[in-house]
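Key idea: predict the complex, not the pieces.
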Amino acid sequence: MTANENPVTSFVDLLIVGAGPAGLVLALWASKFGMKTRIIDEKDSRVATGRADGLHSRTLEILHNFGAAQDIISRAYHINEICSWNPDPGNEYHIRRTQRTVAQPCHLSRFTQSGLNQGATEEILENKIRSEGRISVERNTIPTALRFDDKEASHHDKDVYPIFVTLRRIDPDETSVTCDGEVVGNEHSTTKNGANISTGATKDNQEIVRAKYLVGCDGAHSWIRHQVGIHMEGEKTDTHFGVMDVVPLTDFPDIRISCVIHSKHGSVMTVPRENRLVRLYVQLGETLRGNDLAGSKDVTPERILGYAKKMFQPYHIDFKICDWHSVYTVGQRLAPTFDFKNRIFLAGDSVHTHSPTLGQGMNVSMQDAYNLGWKLGMVITGVAQPSILRTYTQERWNVAKALIELDKRMTKFYSMGPSKESQDYQPFRDQFSQFISGVAITYTPSELIDIASQQDLADNIKLGQRLPSYKVVCNAEGNLVHLSDMLPNNGTWRILVFAGDLESPSQFEKVQQLGVNLESLLGRYKTADRAVFEVFLIHAGTREFNILRLHPVYHPWNDALGWDYWKVFSNDVEDFEPCQSPYDEYGVSKKHGCVVTLRPDQHVSYIGPMDSFGDLERFFCRILV
Amino acid sequence: MTANENPVTSFVDLLIVGAGPAGLVLALWASKFGMKTRIIDEKDSRVATGRADGLHSRTLEILHNFGAAQDIISRAYHINEICSWNPDPGNEYHIRRTQRTVAQPCHLSRFTQSGLNQGATEEILENKIRSEGRISVERNTIPTALRFDDKEASHHDKDVYPIFVTLRRIDPDETSVTCDGEVVGNEHSTTKNGANISTGATKDNQEIVRAKYLVGCDGAHSWIRHQVGIHMEGEKTDTHFGVMDVVPLTDFPDIRISCVIHSKHGSVMTVPRENRLVRLYVQLGETLRGNDLAGSKDVTPERILGYAKKMFQPYHIDFKICDWHSVYTVGQRLAPTFDFKNRIFLAGDSVHTHSPTLGQGMNVSMQDAYNLGWKLGMVITGVAQPSILRTYTQERWNVAKALIELDKRMTKFYSMGPSKESQDYQPFRDQFSQFISGVAITYTPSELIDIASQQDLADNIKLGQRLPSYKVVCNAEGNLVHLSDMLPNNGTWRILVFAGDLESPSQFEKVQQLGVNLESLLGRYKTADRAVFEVFLIHAGTREFNILRLHPVYHPWNDALGWDYWKVFSNDVEDFEPCQSPYDEYGVSKKHGCVVTLRPDQHVSYIGPMDSFGDLERFFCRILV
Ligand SMILES: Cc1cc2nc3c(=O)[nH]c(=O)nc-3n(C[C@H](O)[C@H](O)[C@H](O)COP(=O)(O)OP(=O)(O)OC[C@H]3O[C@@H](n4cnc5c(N)ncnc54)[C@H](O)[C@@H]3O)c2cc1C
Ligand SMILES: Cc1cc2nc3c(=O)[nH]c(=O)nc-3n(C[C@H](O)[C@H](O)[C@H](O)COP(=O)(O)OP(=O)(O)OC[C@H]3O[C@@H](n4cnc5c(N)ncnc54)[C@H](O)[C@@H]3O)c2cc1C
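Result:
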């Protein structure tokens, strides 16, 4: 193309700007839904080391359902315990262990918090996307202009492309690695793209992409956010922490345990990691006060070590290998909305930043994208009403808000020196652990969470929360399986029929009648190329029950493949393992059962009795096309 | 190279002929030891479907220690239960379930028997080898001449290459897939290499490889075995089974359970598998009797189905998809020795064949290679005396012999019709399950299994058997880990110090003294590039114990990496899980402990008290250089 020609124009369902954790999770969904998608990133290559250092339970559950958790789990360090250390009353310049704390009550999730560097996590996600063969990250590419055509958007046609983005391939040497987030380190960016590049770009190496939907996953300095005029609210503080990943040489006995250390000289937080690394967060507060971040380049690993040495007394600590280091300034900022006209969305650091104290940055960013991805998928494939996209800001803004409140409390705890809480850490931690793990996130009623649900039918299946996974018995195979292993991220809604006691003729009759109704519902919303629903049945009896007695909707037939034997489960786990039965875990009546529906992200959207099919039908009527 | 030149000559430590399951496992070891190795196979590509259909516990343990089990486990079907079906007394031409049988007592291994086709298993092994970057399979290559130079071999020098093998690259079209084993199917070979090719080969595409050691893993018609004049002993019978992998269309309720069906019309054995497949072994006995295998080409899947249909009555069975089928004739054959002058070895089907009734063919073949590989590795790297190679035939011949005895009993059971055993299958099965799982294989005393061991110090650590794996607590990390996860196949011997009660000063003193002795032992046998030993310590107390109090041999120091925190374990598992403690599982005294050594294949070679270092030293003196 010469400079005189018009740039090439292409059309996509979805354009994703930024291939960090948020962008990659969104691309995973896009790949599952087969949406025509492009994902660009200004950087030459992935983050190699450093940055976020851990994955919480809910994130691992999500990645497991994408088939990507195993690699992470086998490479990561698993955090079971946190030890708190405080000044020794005998010599207050020495520390001593005051408490061992369970990091996370084990009933919360089958996965524990895991320490692994962000680069490794991104690598695993990107490999997964590549292995599916539909989407690949286009690097060295930036958006230089964005135009939104209101008139086009107002057409009630699913094939409109109201978003015009000009893309430019950049020379890898043109920009250095951008330093975004609340954290700045020894990786300062020299040029920053944005409005300047937008006006200054030549026509060379340019193309125009017209998109139905655009998502900015472009980090804390989001160019997309600027373009649509959304501004972050909140402040930075003058509290600074030095962060480094080192292989420690030390006689500190808890160096391979995550520690919360409050010393007379300031506080340190340690997080053991893969490959003998330990992440240290070292309080630099007083030194840099009033200094903003200008001095952060002078904060070498050796200088951070100098502070740490004092705090670890009477133990010695040193290192020869430092994998990464940085300085962060505590601050909390939040955008007032995460979308622009339900066509352009923002996820991750582009709309919320906070300190790494709770280890949430990467996790919450991925969870944003996870919430958004399937909604876009259902709308773009023509299955759901575009109105469901409204729930994205609604659901995720509340999470970001709550996170920022917690982050303020936690950073105060770290910067204020030894306290009652640092001495008796367990009860303090317990207030946070559900939120930190991510499993307690509850979305409030909306078109996607049916307010008419009957929570009392399933005490431990919380409306709006993700379904916890317990082991069930595959009726036909006689194998113990985690229910969530049956719920991969394939974009379908799940109708879980807790069938109760099938030995009771009246109950059996109800379940069969529900089968007839479900078959008609499934028929109504069937698309040519993908399922909208999957039905699973879990009965309260033993697996002596012959599943072929059930209505075929519960074990669908295929002319070449025969019956589907992987949809009916029994409660009879005691036969296999000394564990609670799923009916007991979920708090469902073994006699009457109930019906539960799950969104494609496993959040519970409806709970009702066996014979209220009408409610279920009305619920889906409102959201499906 | 023109036909007139002499062929190129290259030198290798190890030449492996045949890249089936046995050859691939041997190549894995060779890769770990960094031996200069070539592996050739006449075939163009791997087995795609069919053949062996399952992996038993011990094989999975072995592959786990090579880091290759996870992929298999996630793709495979897991066999927990076996149902037996027999004629219904009400209508003897109908079958009915008579018993549900646990496939394998769960204390035997952490891994259960898994159904996956041989091609997938070979693929996973070959990928693993490739990923290590040292060895790759050379396909379309056969040996055409073999010469052994006795005089060269007699030099007491480790750098002699007494084996001369001429290799030839063949045109992929030249030979079709060879059909070996006791099983012949619809894949008859047309040309068979061997003596003919050996004389008929031209000099084109030829080269000479001089090897220190040669292993024939070239299957039931082993060319290597013929060359060294070892002949199989034993007979084929006239009992035939039709074997097929189909996706069944059926109302038989146990189709996703492994079944042993004895009907009036003959017997069927079913093994559910990956991807909705089920393997059926259908008795063809009477039909083909006296017919040898000539008629086996006529045995189409449809014909096998015809017999099966009768046997499954009153249930219906059919299929549209057949992945693979074959016919096998029961027979058992064994070579009188597995080596030639301790320089040329044979493994797998090349020295023993039998029926697939026990699903052992592939498993025992891999286990042969597993036994041989580390011995060759230690000898070739100059660490161990060549005399240890003698133990290969000794140890593995006994296993093959026992297998053949069991196979005879099992094939009789399948071919003789309904019986007391088929009605009450559990006690019959129980006699076999330890052997089938592979975990009970016990090697008898030799230079590698110290007869002077004190078995009473560790009731459940059986001299000569592989160490069972239980969970222990990593003292420094406070994580529950399976002991075997700490014992990857890296070629080292392991000295496990069950340290007992370290709170007792006299016991602590003994453990420290042992530490001093171990350090000197390790120093004596140190090589420049690889460890010969690893030391692990498991104490009977809680992890409040500070491991840095121990002699450094128990937590070795490295100037850049610091202390090694992954060698000391505590017994304190109750803190984490309701399970037995390792001291209880292993039957070791919590007070006095004991010392156990493991060979690189995890077989227990020595058990002694804390203060008998002299015995341990003498043991290693005999085998190490
Ligand atoms: C130095 C540093 C240290 C951190 N330490 C921690 C920690 O210890 N713990 C923790 O939990 N979190 C930490 N974080 C936060 C964590 O890394 C982020 O929360 C997380 O990466 C957010 O993911 P994201 O996908 O929203 O954004 P990012 O990971 O920032 O990804 C944004 C992507 O968009 C690309 N991009 C940006 N602008 C453009 C553009 N105009 N065009 C094209 N591409 C663009 C970027 O190259 C980048 O790949 C740290 C962050 C930084 C920067
Ligand atoms: C048709 C069939 C069905 C079977 N079904 C079952 C079953 O249901 N269950 C079960 O447990 N077992 C079964 N087996 C047995 C199982 O497949 C074998 O026991 C197992 O493959 C043995 O492994 P191996 O490595 O010793 O030999 P093989 O797997 O036979 O590997 C030998 C390799 O050597 C190569 N080779 C042979 N000659 C030469 C040469 N001259 N030069 C170079 N390369 C050569 C071959 O190409 C092959 O790759 C079956 C075998 C066959 C043939």
